[in-house]
Every structure is written in C-alpha cells, then in structure tokens.
Amino acid sequence: MRVLKSLFALVAFSFALAASVAAQEMPAAKPAELGFSAERLERITQWLREDSAKGTIPGAVLMIVRQGKVAYFESVGLLDPQTKAPMRKDAIFRIYSMSKPITTTAVMMLLEQGRITLDEPIAKYIPAFKDMKVGIETKGEDGKPKLELTDAGKPITIQDLLRHTSGITYGFFGDLLVKKAYLDANVYEGDYDNAEFAERIAKLPLAFQPGTTWDYSNSTDILGRLVEVVSGKSLLQFEKENILDPLGMADTSFYVADAAKHPRIAEPFQNDRKIGAGVDFNDPRLVRRWESGGGGMVSTLADYSRFLMMLRNGGTLDGKRYLGPKTLAYMTADHTAGGIVPGPYYLPGPGYGFGLGFAVRKETGVALTPGSVGDYNWGGAGGTYFWVDPKGDMFVIYGMQSPSQRVHYRQVLRDMVYGAIEKPAARAATD
Hints:
Layout: H1 2-22, H2 38-54, E1 59-66, E2 69-80, E3 85-86, E4 93-96, H3 100-112, E5 133-139, E6 145-151, H4 158-163, H5 177-185, H6 194-202, E7 213-214, H7 219-231, H8 235-247, E8 274-276, E9 279-280, E10 297-299, H9 301-312, E11 316-317, E12 320-321, H10 325-331, E13 341-342, E14 352-354, E15 359-361, E16 376-379, E17 385-389, E18 394-399, H11 406-419, H12 426-429
Parallel strand pairs: 7-13
Antiparallel strand pairs: 1-2, 1-18, 2-3, 4-10, 5-6, 8-9, 11-12, 14-15, 15-16, 16-17, 17-18
Helix pairs in contact: 2-11, 3-7, 3-8, 6-7
C-alpha cells in the first residue's frame, strides 16, 4: 500500500510538473534591451488605463514580444464590469476569429502529412457541397431586388476555403440577399455539431462564384469539419493532440468546462455584446456540441503567445516542429492575386492581401497603420487582435472584450507600438 501511495504521489507530481512547465512564461527583457522606449510603452498603459476608467472599454491585456523575449505584458481595467473584478494577465477571452489561424494550421498539418491537397474540391470530403448554386441579385417586376440561382462555375476547393474565396459568406453583416438567406435559415439555431453545421451551409446559395471574390465567411468552420473527416477525430481532439497540448496551451479550447476557471473569463459591457445581426456574445461556460473552427475558441494571451512564438520561429517551439518553414511561408504569402477581387467588406484593408488564415501586408505604405512588408495579422470580433512582424522580429497580442471598439483599438495600438520602437531588431538588422 505504501508503494502504491508513493506511485500515486509520483504520478501526481509529474502531472503538476508538466503543467508548471507548460505554463512557464517566455523570457523577458527590459524594453531598452529590445529596442523600445520604456517611456513610450508607458503611454500605451496610460491610454488603456484612462479609457477603461472612462468606461470606453472594460479592460485589456497587452503583450509585446521582440527577439523572442517579452518587452511588455500588462493588464489594466476590469475583467468583468458587472462584478468590478479587476483585469488579470491570465484572463480567458473569447477570441472568435483568432480561432481561424489555429484551424488553418491543423489543415496545413494534414497537407504536410500528404492526406489532402489544396486543389481538391471540398465535396470530395463533404458531399453536400457538390453542385452548389450561386445567388445572383436581379431586379424584379416591382423594382425590388430578387435572388436568382445559377450553377457554380467550378467546385469549391480547399484553397478557396482557406483564403475566403469559396463563395460561402457570413449572414450577420452586410446586406446581400444571400446574407439575408443565411439569417432566414437560422444557421446558428439549436445544438449541433460540425457535421450538421456543414450540411446547413451547403444548402444555402453562394454569394459569389468560387475562386473569384474575397468574402469573409463560414469557410473556416467548414475546414473544421474537413479536419474531422480526414483525421477521424473531433476538431478539438485533433487540435489538442497536435497543437494545443504540445504547445502548452492549457486554457485554449472551445468552451470553459472547468468551473474553477470561470472567474477568469473576461466580460464585455452589458450594452456591448452584439457581434452582428442576430449574433450576440456567447457564454463559454455553457458547453455545446459545436466546435467552431472559425470563431468558437477561448484563450489567454500567454497561451496564444505560445502559438505565435511557434509561427515566429518558422514552425518550431521548444525543439518540436509543428509546420515546415516553407509551409509557413506559403501560408503567409498573398493568395489573392490572379483575378481575385475584394468583396464589398474587404477586412484585410488597403495595403493587405490574404494568405491562408492571415491578412498579409504587401507594401510598407498604403495601409492605414505602420508595419513591415510581410507582416501578418488577424483579430476576433470580440476585440482580440494579433500581428506578427517577421522583419521587425516582433509579435503583439491584445485581449479585450468590446466588439464596438475593436477596429479603432487595433489601429491606435499599432500606431503606438511602432511609435515606441527606437532601434531595429538585432535579428532583422542582419537579414
């Protein structure tokens, strides 16, 4: 019995040690050592603190990493404006569309294993997407727009899904009639899984011909189902085994099932919970069947920084390779050239193309904020945001739960972070 107890104690210690190692923070350095002005970084803290005090945002967490070391990691304001609990660095945020790069990474892992190719039609794996129709808006006899259906000119490919050129759309923003059809179909109604959700989307018309137009969409949710079909595992299971657990992302999932973690969930203001038409902030404490690869995950800045550090390192972290460097370079190249046009709501913005899971900067100017050619980014509808600047050897991740403020804060944040840089990164200087 004594030996058995000792064995149990050893196992418990091993698990605790593993958790401790996974949760270790990245090495830090003084701002000046990494080329930053400490005074100008403090401006950012004061800006966020003042805006939280004014009630513009509840609170925020910001991390800046350069040359592989943390230059800045601060939390300000409130975690929950209802309870007045203060923001904390280990706050759990609904990251919404920052789920997309993780799902995209899972897809590209399957590609590296030779199990899929990007030219394959999604209908090969999800037959409901065969013989899709495209909705064309015409004017009826009463002068009002009406929707007519025509055959898709080509199949939706896996690459189309990755770069949002599938013709699939989102119904909660914009005024196209196909988007209205999404709302009328109540695609988010009830408790469903990825298989059922894919069937729902496949029954609806496409907003554009596949391969012609960048339009933000449920495409990445369909990729989540692709991962399940090809791997034979649930999306979460595949991601935990291949991405989340190996990277030590213990707080990243689709729901917060552990009640002990509930006090760490960041909340928005009560009057700022709307993502778009018919879509409000979800409650991640309620575990449901849908694992939305396009927008369903929760995470912490410490967790997501591990994922970004892997990207910054060219696909490796702590001696383990997740993606090949050529694969990652391919993902972060512009895939919108060759006749693809921006849709009516081109979220990458001026100066940016789109790769596989990320907006990718094409030129130093044109865009509305500073940056470097080749930097890539994406954000979540709830207010979270990140960007990776390989030439500046830097990545930044921001946590906030305020959908109404998300665009403004992304712009100001980039302006202030780049304004705080005084010297080029050591690695970039030798490139």
